[in-house]
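Human: If only I could read backbone structure tokens as easily as an amino acid sequence. Underneath my words sits a plain record pairing an amino acid chain with its backbone structure tokens. Take your time, and here it is.
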Amino acid sequence: MVSASFRFYEELNDFLAPERRYRTFASTCAEAASAKHMIEALGVPHTEVELILVNGESVGFDHRLQEGDRVAVYPKFEALDVTPLLRLRARPLRDTRFVADAHLGGLARLLRMAGFDTLYDNHFQDAEIVGIANREGRIVLSRDRELLKRREVSHGCYVHAIETKVQLREIVERLDLSRSARPFRLCLECNAPLHPVAKAAVLDRLPERVRAEQTRFSACDLCGRVYWEGSHWRAMRQVLAGLLPEQAADV
């Protein structure tokens, strides 16, 4: 066994035992334990970590810890440029797309509302989620630490909030998504793209009041749902207000 000291920064402390938060603490490690192994043994999923410094030098997840090492662990940086330092992912994701676990159906709908391609099925098993994420280059969204600790998961976010609207704000702010949003472009139910349709083409699918009051419609070719700018649309716009740039939310 060897002993190393650890210090976790910012929101990574939420994963630690209370007595270890916002301070340096010592922990024993197995011989030749990797940085990833110890970070996750202390409760922090590797998907939450952006930078590891050991004795002041940037290292990867596979770095083997030695007696007396000083380990500093950082989340995603927002105000500090760390591009000269070693990043822990082989490559960034070109497009921001998600796959959400079974507990995040409400968040999946709100992300779709904001225009982010988000797969969700409450029957997805963990192995399916990991497989989808890797095949399609998606970020795993989960409140299950053990899912995010899986070695095969490269990009993931632990969702701290419980309430759905707060979850949306958390993800948009953490991943700086506000300028990438394209609201009301995806079907809330099946995630397929929506397209404008003439009123006459969907007249038989509209409630009587909607036929009389609405003129603009969009539809999903996959599930056949029709959308219009009614009270539900106005409520969704209100959810996006203050979260997205005004020109993005006001569509």
